[in-house]
């Protein structure tokens, strides 16, 4: 796939091309990035944009939507990948197409109710705390099946549970065992999607069955602490 010369030297176009060529969903994380960067990514063929801060994306949303309308681009999806607070649910459901971070019955119910109010069927993923880390959100691995069964009834209403998501411990090659566990959970629940793999471990996640990677820092030639 030959990429157009967009003139934006800050993007790692070779990596973007390589990831786009793979048989998986590539979510470009644009936290702390300007609207222009999102436009450039879309011009390069990126169809999935990820954000984790509601207020920040709210400031970009209308400009990006205007760009998509003017460009007659209709197949770009927005992914919310951050921790979802109940009081932000209405805004998230209104702006995003996929929520990666369902981690409580309360949040699932709130998303379902909000989606009903705007006549929307919301794609969601269950966040799993696969490394059992105290500082991270998510359902513990041994509770995932129970949690799934508790919220499954919402699928008859306004949410679609499409898969599982995790942020694996940053332990290099040792993250492989966590990704294997995630794949086992996904297969046990017979779910189609597995959102795992970020800048430091995406290649391992892909090898272990990820269907969706979330890349941020590695997309930008000036590597900083902006994204996943």
Please outline what is shown here.
By secondary structure, this protein is an alpha/beta fold. It has helices spanning 13-20, 35-43, 54-70, 89-95, 105-117, 144-151, 176-189, 202-207, and strands spanning 25-29, 48-51, 77-80, 98-102, 122-128, 159-166, 193-195, 212-215. The chain has a single domain (13-219), classed as TIM Barrel, CATH 3.20.20.
Search tags:
228 residues; alpha/beta; TIM Barrel; eight-stranded parallel beta sheet; 8 helices; 36% helix; 18% strand; disordered N terminus
Could you characterize the architecture of this molecule?
This protein has helices at residues 13-20, 35-43, 54-70, 89-95, 105-117, 144-151, 176-189, 202-207, and strands at 25-29, 48-51, 77-80, 98-102, 122-128, 159-166, 193-195, 212-215. By secondary structure, the protein is α/β, with parallel strands linked by helices. Helix 4 (89-95) packs across helix 5 (105-117).
Write the layout of secondary structure elements.
Blueprint: H1 13-20, E1 25-29, H2 35-43, E2 48-51, H3 54-70, E3 77-80, H4 89-95, E4 98-102, H5 105-117, E5 122-128, H6 144-151, E6 159-166, H7 176-189, E7 193-195, H8 202-207, E8 212-215
Parallel strand pairs: 1-2, 1-8, 2-3, 3-4, 4-5, 5-6, 6-7
Helix pairs in contact: 4-5
Largest sheet: 8 strands, parallel
Strand content: 15-25%
> Please, what is the CATH homologous superfamily?
Alanine racemase
- CATH fold node name: TIM Barrel
Number of domains: 1
Query: How many E strands?
Result: 8
Gross morphology is globular
Q: State the secondary-structure class.
A: alpha/beta
């Amino acid at each position: 796939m030959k990429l157009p010369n967009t003139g934006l030297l800050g993007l790692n176009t070779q990596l973007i091309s390589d990831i786009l060529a793979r048989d998986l969903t590539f979510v470009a994380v644009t936290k702390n990035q300007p609207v222009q960067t999102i436009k450039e990514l879309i011009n390069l063929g990126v169809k999935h944009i990820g954000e984790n801060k509601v207020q920040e994306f709210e400031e970009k949303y209308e400009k990006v939507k205007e760009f998509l309308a003017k460009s007659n681009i209709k197949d770009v999806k927005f992914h919310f990948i951050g921790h979802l607070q109940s009081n932000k649910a209405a805004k998230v459901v209104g702006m995003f197409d996929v929520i990666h971070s369902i981690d409580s019955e309360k949040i699932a119910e709130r998303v379902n109710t909000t989606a009903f109010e705007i006549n929307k069927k919301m794609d969601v993923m269950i966040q799993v705390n696969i490394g059992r880390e105290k500082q991270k959100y998510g359902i513990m691995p041994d509770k995932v099946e129970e949690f799934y069964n508790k919220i499954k009834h919402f699928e008859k209403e306004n949410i679609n549970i499409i898969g599982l998501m995790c942020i694996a411990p940053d332990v290099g090659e040792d993250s492989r065992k966590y990704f294997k566990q995630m794949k086992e959970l996904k297969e046990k629940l017979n779910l189609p999607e597995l959102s795992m793999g970020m800048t430091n471990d995406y290649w391992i996640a892909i090898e272990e069955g990820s269907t969706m990677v979330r890349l941020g820092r590695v997309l930008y030639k000036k590597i900083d602490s902006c994204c996943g």
